[in-house]
Structure formats: C-alpha cells, structure tokens
Amino acid sequence: MNINKKKLYGLVVLLISYITAYLAGFTVFNLLKDKVDLYVNLLLADLAATVIIYLIGLLYNTASIYDPYWSLQSIVIGVSLVIYTHNVNAGIITYLVIILMYSARLTGNFIIGFNDISYIDWRYKMLKEKSGKLYFLVNLFGIHIFPTLVVYAATLPMIGYIRNNMEFKIYDIAGLVVMVVGIIYEIYSDLAMIKFKKERKSNKEVIDIGLWRYSRHPNYFGEIVFWFGVFITFWLHDLGNWYFMFGAVAILLMFIFISIPMQERHLEEYKRDYRSYKRRTRMLIPLRKRNN
C-alpha cells in the first residue's frame, strides 16, 4: 500500500469515526433534551461523542484519532444548536463563520500533516511510557475527556449567544475582531513554520523567523487570543456573565502549565541551541525582549 492509499484509507476511517461519534452525541442529546438543561445536555452529548472516538482509537491502537476533535468540536456544536433552536441572525452567522475559519485552519493543518491511521503523537507515546499499566486511564481522561471539557467550557459563550438568540450589536465587533486577530496570528505562524521546514537543513535547527523570532509559541498565543475573543463577543451583551471567561482562562493555563512545558522539554532533547533560543525569546507574547 503506497503512502497516498494509506492516507486516503486513514481519512476515510476518520470520517466514519467522526460521523459515528456525532450520531452517538445526537442520540444522547435527543434522549435527554426534555430532562436536563441545554448546557448539560450538550456537554453529555459531547462526552458521548468523545468516548466513541476513544473506543475507535483503542481499536486502531492510536489516541491520535482524537486529534481533530479540538478543532471540530465547537463548530459542530454551534451549527447543531442553530438547527435545533432555529435561532439565526446576523450576529450568530458572523460568529459561526469566524469559528468555522478557526476550525478550517486547524483541521486543514491536520489533514495536510496526516499520513497514516497508525500515527501516534509523540506526547501520547511519552504518556504511555510514563503511565505504564495506568495508560488506559490517562488515555481516556487525560488525552480525551480533559481537552473535551476545556474546549466545551471555552465554547459556552458561543452556546449562550445562540441559545439566547442575541442580536448583533456594534460592540460585537470588538470580540469578533479579537477572534480574527487570533486566527491571523495562527495562520501567520503556520506560514512561517512551513517556510522554515522547507528551507531548514536539519530538524535539529530552531525556527527563528516571523513571529517565532519573538515568541516560542506564537500559534498558541493566537489560540488563546481567539478563545478570549469568543468570550468577549458574548460577554459584552451582559457584563454579569464574566464567569463564562472560565473556558478561555482554562485554555491559557493548560498551555502555560501543561502543553508548553511538555513541548519545550521535548524540543530541548534534540534541537540545537534551544535553550539559547528560550533565553532570547518570550514564551507567548510575540514582542522583542529588551535585551535583544
């Protein structure tokens, strides 16, 4: 089987997996729609879909089947909620279009880099080695359930906006612009990384172009900005809903205390001069350090 056929086969498996997961979530939602609050119902449906992806991952012996879930979760919930509530207006459409842009960028990156259904992210391999016999718990709760909960929390402002059928107001522009700025940061970071990978002579080299010259993780910075924009767009309609910021804050903390430290320890193992790169660049905010 050549690489193109492997990739095609893998993408078909992923497509069927995610359709199956959606149908599981759809079933749970309809069974509970008159029994629990909408927010709770959507969460339970989301978790049901996550468990299906987890089980399919066990079947193929890779947790990376979950990788696209992060980018697809919010837009699927948003579109499904619009269909369920019949709430449609200029604000909701604009909100969803920008979230679709975010989802398309991440999902597109995944598809471009995807080669084989057997692929396993290096982070999952590391967690498996460290957890040993407890990996099945780390896999279910750490790799699958935890990210689903974090993204769901960050998506709650969008759910509230659609549920309450909020009309577009001039101040929505502030939040929507923040969302777009986050996406632009991510795209610009992606383009610089693509250019770097084409021109580098070894994978031991450290990227030092574009936004990466000032930030070690400008893509994460854009991600964080995007989710705060999702919150701001909803929050400006009712300043009392400040607690909906929890999801965006959770993503910020997850990157700072989990994702970035894990990735940087990994990069230090094989990247030349990575420690020097860390000293001269900021972790997140893409601004030149004063001593550089």
- Number of domain units: 2
Quaternary structure classification: single chain
How many β strands by DSSP?
0
Residue-averaged pLDDT, rounded? 95
Low-confidence stretches: none
**Alpha-beta classification:** mainly alpha
Tell me the radius of gyration: 20 Å
Largest sheet: none
How many DSSP helices? 10
Helix content: over 70%
In a nutshell, what does this entry contain?
The protein is mainly alpha-helical. It is built from ten helices and no strands.
Structural write-up:
The termini are far apart. The chain is an all-alpha fold and 292 residues long. It folds into two domains: 151 residues, no CATH class; 118 residues. Helix content is 72%, strand content 0%.
